[in-house]
Amino acid sequence: ILSITHSVVDGFTYYKIMNMLTEGREIDSLSFVRKHEFVSKMKEACGTAEHKLLLSTGFILTLLPGMLCGPKAKCDARFIDEEKVRQLKLDIKSRSTTPDDEFVCSTNDIITSAFSRATKSEILLMAINLRNRVSEASDNDAGNYESVVLYDAPGSESPEAVRSALRGGVPFIRRGNAPLPSFFQLLRGVRVSIITNWAFSSFRADLQMLDEEARGVPLTLHLPVYDY
């Protein structure tokens, strides 16, 4: 088991290290020097007002009831229907007004939108790796160089809406027309969901486990979560 606390690294770094611990993979030198200037660039990339909201007293209070009185979280793993995703991409492409050779949406856009609708999110937070999106962080930087893009319900109602906030690069512009909730709206309660995608390009290894005789056994399923 490779276990690293999220306090010091994000998913990208985790899989970067896991990749290097796999037999036959090259070892890359990572920088552990903290880049303090990243914080201001992160706020600019994901929205200063949105970042301020996430650190506000009202937002913390809207989360407390679920954290203190809500049921215990359950770990539930499922496969994605790749054929259904392929068909959805074709449908989205067919109604797109962009040139035929232009990228329209990703699998992550489809899943994020479906998750937002399924959870009836009023605020959806989508984790995003900011390496190479802001100049202060690159693939060789180990640490937490990520943040979240904030979506409202209209801004995440379709895969195209999810993609539109990312299409122009930083700063990511929230496309929904709903204003950010006020302090009193947050006190009344706002449905908040968060989604993160751990399918990092930094991880290209074929995971194997060792049997009793130390022979490599291919791993057919890897779950980056632990139900405790």
Characterize the structure shown.
With about 230 residues, the protein is an alpha+beta fold. It has one domain. Helices cover about 35% and strands about 10% of the residues. The chain has 8 helices and 5 strands, in the order H-H-H-H-H-H-E-E-H-H-E-E-E. The chain has a 3-stranded mixed beta sheet, covered by helices on one side. Strands 4-5 form a two-stranded antiparallel ribbon. The chain is globular and about 60 Å long. The two termini are about 15 Å apart.
Count of DSSP-assigned helices: 8
Number of strands: 5
What would you report as the Rg, rounded to the nearest angstrom?
Answer: 19 Å
Percent of residues in beta strands? 5-15%
User: Which residues form runs of ≥5 with pLDDT under 50?
Assistant: none
* Tally of discrete structural domains: 1
Shape by Cα distribution: globular
Q: What class would the helix/strand composition place it in?
A: alpha+beta
Can you tag this structure with a few keywords?
228 residues; alpha+beta; 3-stranded mixed beta sheet; two-stranded antiparallel ribbon; 5 strands
What's a quick, concise take on this entry?
The chain has 228 residues and is an alpha+beta fold. It is 35% helix and 11% strand.
